[in-house]
Amino acid sequence: MTPRTFERRVLEAVRANRLWSPGATVMLGVSGGADSMALLHCVHNLAARRDTRWRPHVAHLNHGLRGPAGDADAEFVGRAATHRRLPFVTERVDVREFAAAHDLTIEEAARACRYAFLARAAASADAAVVAVAHHADDQAETILHHILRGSGLRGLAGMPAIRPLDATGTLRLARPLLYFRRVMLGDYLRAVDVAWCADAANIDEAHTRNRIRHRLLPMIEQQINPRVVDALLRMGEQARASSELIESMAASLLTGPRVRCRDDVDGARLLLVPATDLAASPRIVQGQAVRQALRKLGVGLGEIGYERIAAVLTMLAAGRGGRRIQLPGGAWVTRRGKNVVFGARAALDRDFE
Q1: Deepest of 64, 65, 188, 255, by most Cβ within 10 A of its Cβ?
Q2: Same domain, yes or no: 140 and 31
Q3: What pTM did the predictor assign?
Q4: 81-120 pLDDT, tens per residue?
Q5: Distance of CA 211 to CAs 119, 206, 216, Å?
Q6: How far apart are the first and last CA of the chain?
């Protein structure tokens, strides 16, 4: 594939998935690695077209994990942005300190810090979209990881091409390279003679993702299915279509005049949903409706696993009231008369992906 063909296909992906519009300000998350440098160079070239008129900005977060090497990456990305005359913003954070303070793994803390920084950078540039360089191999690794963790349909769908990045949905996270293989990005960079940084963390097999990338997937390709990445991507697309249908069906259960939201006498926020409507739906739709109802009350779902949702569905199937299912963070579900009642005393932090 020639560089021009690669760039044309990226432009087609942006348009087909409605990632952003002509004239948009786009904040590019750039680590300095091969994937993000391909994103930077490609979007910069496409922005010069008369039919795009994009305004790219570059953001780089130094996670404070790699000492001088991390500082060198920040300088490298800054030079790349300056060379292309693009606005550049960078910050340095202490991910280990953040992880300890919030009881997170290093990987979870790095992700949370990174997305929070990108949201701040986008706000400072008045950008409505942040673009990152996740590609098809990342998608396959994510889906396989979710399979091994026992995720539901939403997890099996992998990463969406675009999703909200803030609570209001006004800022979006876009993945324009999600349909391109890693080898395509490397070929593109070599063809246009663009350098990148090598991050030793990407080969450290202390991280689960790296063991999947460097051991598990190659073993499956060599011994079981040489086209396993394509198979995982197909499954992800099918899971996404199924998940979207189920979410739509669940959302219909939480709308209409018989669904009510009010404050309880003790200050809790309540959502009342007709029990007969929930009970008449397939169990998988019921589970999604429970999750959506909790989200409507501002409840984060990070600590509410399959077992808690299953307990709510068992109560619903019993067809009688009285029992209250306690959920993390002061949320709860019970049945009162003809309604299933969802309650929450305080909004929890939204879970991050």
Answers
A1: 188
A2: yes
A3: 0.84
A4: 999 999 999 999 999 999 999 888 888 899 999 999 999 9
A5: 30, 8, 6
A6: 32
